[in-house]
């Protein structure tokens, strides 16, 4: 009897705990919507003000909090998980991706997708691309949206598109990812005056028209009536686009400065060695490389949330995690310039700038992760991963506590817990991005130090707040150019490309195509 009541109490408290977590998410969602609406309103007012001919210093752009290394932020409600309510008729759950063959010859350059000019401002600038084919050039800051939050739509289907969209910030009432109008702001050539900018993409001409089409009516309704007023707004936007383009240069400069002046504490952690990896992980990889490997067989080696395609396995030895963290803390303490991973994460570190790609992350992806993803995610590019963006995220009681509900700019993501001591801060998953949170069953995965969680980039997820300590995770966004070249995972359209730095956003383009695009530029 005693045992029975104990079990009952245990089960009830578990239920209460789950309920209260769900409630927290709901509350945050509400807050997020309010913040999103407020921001949108403010921006509209600002645009109106500018469009009416006021030439004050603070522009629509200035409303956006900007930092040299983080790009443009529209005052995100950092701690509030947003909700994905974006639905697009053409989007299907678990979209089948085109088959992945070997990379075609000539498909050698990395690209950034230009869709959505005032989308997020993170620059990806791998100084350290592994393949010689990845050529360092300019990144398109207009579009290197990395993490995209998906707030609930507040715009009725037939009303105007959002004024601005930002890949990381819930400024947008509904992001272009939802299949709404995306405007690619190429604008006047005077705006595209970066010295080393080489290739502009298709859509160069129609984008301004598209912008007019999409925003003229809403701007007019706000009082931006004359052609001159509209031009003024365009010029401001154009300036902001340019500002973001220069972020790329800043990133390259940071990488160079780090290489020049930063003295690593543990130089050996920059080069992947077998001894960093757990025997179980190596065993799993060996299994995958065997001729009789199958998905079912592999699943026997992994922890899985049934049916969710989120997998857990041990990755790094504890000692390696500790040394890596010591290295990263040493870097944080140094005077070296720091690039932050994205606008949602204010304390993480971009590992490519620090020089981790060539010797560590790329070999980890190519030799160890690729065999696993090939079996688990053949439909999402798991067999043809060819680049990555890697960074660490850091949560602390006085810094970032959590991460909003979002999807990644990745086909497949590996998220490894590196430490230190922390409580709570679980990762939670909803459904694939097309399904609203309200219709999604959420589940949580506890971060366990040294273990990795592998999931599809488009699987909506967020991190719950830590309640004590400090949490560091290594995040590897793995990309398959063959998949994303056809369909950008962020805007769900055929990408419109320009050359980028290093791995850039993981797109590639055939050389001959590139040449013709260069001629247009
Ligand atoms: O904090 C985490 O564990 C999640 C991080 C994440 O999802 C991301 O950076 O994309
Ligand atoms: Fe993520």
Tell me about this structure.
- Keywords: Coiled coil, Dioxygenase, Iron, Metal-binding, Oxidoreductase, Vitamin C.
- The chain has 521 residues and is α+β, with helices and mostly antiparallel strands.
- The chain has two domains: 22-88 and 96-250 and 496-520, no CATH class; 257-482, Sandwich (Jelly Rolls).
- Helix content is 34%, strand content 16%.
- It is built from eleven helices and 17 strands.
- The protein has helices at 2-51, 60-63, 206-221, 227-261, 279-289, 295-299, 318-333, 351-354, 357-376, 481-484, 511-520, and strands at residues 65-67, 71-73, 111-113, 147-149, 303-304, 311-314, 349-350, 387-396, 403-408, 412-419, 422-424, 427-432, 443-445, 451-456, 459-463, 466-479, 497-499.
- A hairpin with a 6-residue loop joins strand 5 and strand 6.
- The termini are far apart.
- The model is unreliable at 49-109, 115-206 and 512-521 (pLDDT under 50).
- Residues 147, 406, 408, 413, 461 line the site of fe (ii) ion.
What is the makeup of the main sheet? 8 strands, antiparallel
Order of helices and strands: HHEEEEHHHHEEHEHHEEEEEEEEEHEH
Number of strands: 17
Helix content bin:
25-40%
In angstroms, what separates the terminal alpha carbons? 79 Å
